[in-house]
Every structure is written in structure tokens, then in C-alpha cells.
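Q: Entry one of two.
A:
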Amino acid sequence: MPESARRTGDPWVWGGVALLLLLSTGSVALYRSAPQSTAELGTRAWLVAQPDAYSPQMARARDLLATARREAAQDNGPAALAADSAAADHALKAREAARSAAEQRQATDLWAEARLHAAALLADTGKRPWWRRDDEAALRDALRHTESVLAADTDPSLRLRADSLRLHVTRALRPGPLEWLPNRR
């Protein structure tokens, strides 16, 4: 075999080596982008199925509201209030990302539920036995939460709950035995 043929080599070999390097790099990139856990797989599947911002925000708000209710049932008030606050924030973000009036209404109602749950917790923690002074700061926070729900356009059942809670809190804010007397409005 002549010397010149040995130095140049077969052109198919260099093309094959280049193709092998390209396929190897692609397979490594594909492996690295694969989900590493079932939770990551579920998240990716959720984002592929629902690429909008509304659905994940609503799902997160519902999860946080459920967490708040579980924490309240276990008498962990601070954790429940934090979860309620986060749920309300996510519901507001979902409302901003809503594409229709129905989605806005659902997000607003979920926000109102989180605010009313927090208000009920604050009212319960603010109300003390008759021989001890009530925590007026907590009661005023509860009143602020209920009034924000009443100011929003929410479901009538939520407005009814907010009005009932507002009446309860305003009675508790009256000093001493005056809270049991009818309030003339």
C-alpha cells in the first residue's frame, strides 16, 4: 500500500467518529434532562398539560388552604395563619393570570376562603375568657380580613360567612359586658 493512502485514511472513518461523538453527546444531554424523581415527573407532566399560570397557582393555593385547615385542627395557629396568608397570595396571583371571568371568580372565592379562615383563627385567638382582657390586635386583624372579603365581589355564601364573622368580632371588640348588648346600627 502506498504511503500517501495510509496518511489520509478512509473518509468514512472520520465521518463515523464525528457521528458517534454527536450521538454520544445527545444521549448524555437526554439522560441529564430526564426527571430524577416521580415528583419531578409529575410536575413536568402538569406543566405540559397545563402550561398557563392560572392552574398551578390555584392548585398551590388549594394545597396551602388544606394545609392551613390541617394545622388549625392540630392547634398550630401560627402555621395555619402562615399557610392561609400564602394561600391568599397564590389565589391573587391566579386571579391576575385568569383568562376568563369564571376563572377570576374562582380565584377570588378561594382568596376569600383563605381570608375568612385566617379571620376565624384570629378571632378565636383574640377572644379570651371574661376575666382576662381580649387581644384587641388580633381581633382588629380579624375584622380587617372580614371587611376585605365583604369589599370584594365574592360568592353570596362567603359574604354571609364574612358578615356573621364581622358581627362576632365587632361584638368582641366592645368593652366588658357591652359585647352582649345589641349593637344599634
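Q: Entry two of two.
A:
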Amino acid sequence: MSLERVQQVATPQADDWIVTLKLRSGGIVTRRVTPGRIDAEFALRCALRAQGVKPQEVSDAEIRRAGAARVVVPVDDGFADLMRRAKND
């Protein structure tokens, strides 16, 4: 792996994903997902897996670029619907 590739993972970038999960249990978790070249769906899957939660355990989610304005996406029924709504922003 090249030094440039390592720096992309180790150094925060404006195009990294910020995923915030509001859990039905009341907790809120925010994960930064890098590298930014992955798509929003994969970033959300990474955040869910890193936190060890299922889509059904999430009441709201926010997916945005680290350098972008916030967009809140309500979640009430699963991963596919979350992605459908997130792509419409």
C-alpha cells in the first residue's frame, strides 16, 4: 500500500462520510467513515456494522460529507428505505 493511500485513511478529508445514528433505545452515535470515495450506502453499512446495530434499531440517521451541510433522514422501516430517502436530498 502506498503512502498516499495510507494518508487518505489516516488523515480526515472533507469528502469523508459522517454518519449519525439515532437509536430507538435513545442513544446517538456518530461515525466518520473513510475513504470518501465509497458511496453513501456503503458508508451507512460500515457505520451500522462498526456500531453493531441493525437498521431496525435505528430511528433516524444522518449521512453527510464531512465538509457538507447536515441533512437529517428519518428512518422508520429499514435500510433500503433509508437509502431511497437519502438519495433524494
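A: Comment on entry two: The mean pLDDT is 80. Strands lie at 17-23, 28-33, 58-65, 72-74.
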